[in-house]
Amino acid sequence: MANERIALGINLRKNKNSTSTAFGKYYPEVDVQKTLSLRGFAEHMVMHGSIYGRSIVEGVLLQICDCLPELVAQGVPVQLGSLGTFYPTAEVKEKAAVLNIQAMDGLNPNDIVKAIHIRFLPDSTKLDNLCGPQFKNRCVLELRNIVDTQEVTVNGKTKKMQILKPIATAVAEWKEANGEGGGTTGGNQGGTSPDNGSSGDGGSTGSPQGGSGSGSTIPTLTISKTGTGTATVKVGGNAVSSGSQIGAGTEVAIEVTPASGQVPTATLNGTSVSLTNNEGTYTGTFEMPADNATLVINSGASAGPDDN
User: Fold this and answer.
1) 262: burial class by Cβ within 10 Å (0-12, 13-18, 19+)?
2) Torsional sign, CA 10, 82, 5, 53
3) To 10 degrees, the CA torsion angle through 263, 269, 271, 273?
4) At what angle do helices 38-47 and 54-72 cross, to 10 degrees?
5) Does residue 208 sit in the same domain as residue 148?
């Protein structure tokens, strides 16, 4: 098994929302690489010391791909060891609330359920914690590019492309423009590439620079959950865990499925967050404050996938 820890690239993207309190500031995002195929994943597992050949490993993975959705479609959560649990949730159609018990007579669930989603809940036990800050400890972070999405014309067609510039290059250009000396910067601009495309090489500064940069500290959101209902906190449609750094002014969404007959509550720094009931699933949003914040969610007391 290889001992080298490959770095996880971190890019910075500028907030262009002029109505946001975070306008003009840069925030981190992962430099996502090309997706690895199932066959490639099987080969990776074999290279990590598996006693089985690629064909056997790939066959097992293919069986998982068939059986896991089958079980989740039956309402059966599937736990894959220390990786985590896959489980289903229902998405309600807009304005599809059932008005009363009488309306349930002959009700077709397809009339109120827009979609069934397969959710993944990372393992959060002390031994194999894959949640947020703990999983970060498994990563070697490497600062890479400033990333910007722009519209460009290619063969007469307008497309959205991702523009990459090595951060070292951007810093050197800023210093030169502001009359600060220093070594020249190597590396090349990544140029234009489709979103999530690969970046150009980062290069390196010609000589060390004295002093340290200054910038705004990204506030941290601490999340506390009580009860055995389910509660998910999301930013941009992606679930976030306690201890995540979230840019000030960013919209944070809450989704809670409480215990039967219970009404969940949520407070941000002691102030109540309004939750709307969509036939058993309560949702709400708030803007991330400029300072560190604590979100407390009480999801009731019914059985459900453990998401603490």
Assistant:
1) middle
2) negative
3) -50
4) 130
5) yes
**Residue 184, pLDDT score:** 43
| Alpha-carbon torsion, ordered 44, 48, 51, 55, to 10 deg | 0
- Tokens 């000030």 sit on residue: 248
Residue type present at position 42: A
Whether 286 shows a pLDDT value over 60: the answer reads yes
pTM listed for this prediction = 0.51
Instruction: Report the pLDDT averaged over residues 139-151.
Output: 88
For residue 15, the enclosing domain spans 1-32+140-216
- Helix boundaries (H) for the chain: 38-47, 54-72, 132-136, 167-177
Same domain membership, residue 47 and residue 131:
yes
The burial class, CB within 10 Å (0-12 / 13-18 / 19+), for 21 is middle
Helix, strand or coil for residue 113? strand
Size (the chain), residues: 308
- DSSP sequence for 281-305: EEEEEEEPPSS-EEEEEE--S----
pLDDT band at 91 (very low <50, low <70, confident <90, very high): very high
